[in-house]
What does this fold into?
Amino acid sequence: MYTVVETEAFSKWLAGLKDRPTRIRLQLRLRKATLGQLGDVKPLSGGVFEMREFFGPGWRMYYVERAGTLIIMLGGGDKSSQSRDIERARKMAKELHDEQSQDPAF
It folds into this structure.
């Protein structure tokens, strides 16, 4: 079981998807994650993971895991923007880590 927390950037990205069936499918994937079913994931550097969906343009959602039960969703995209999306997710993960180092209660 996981708790999934969305960053503002991730929420905006997901809400901004114009294709409603795609948005629903990705939201279902997040729901499955709360049940402990992460599906196809790939570890990246900087503590960032990639949830991979193999439909449409190859959707990706990026996250970090904390305390073994908390998933913080950082962002998303598709194969065409994958390099930029990964770099953005790594930067956000570092910022989160730095904030947590400053304030352990965060």
About this structure: The chain is about 40% helix and 25% strand.
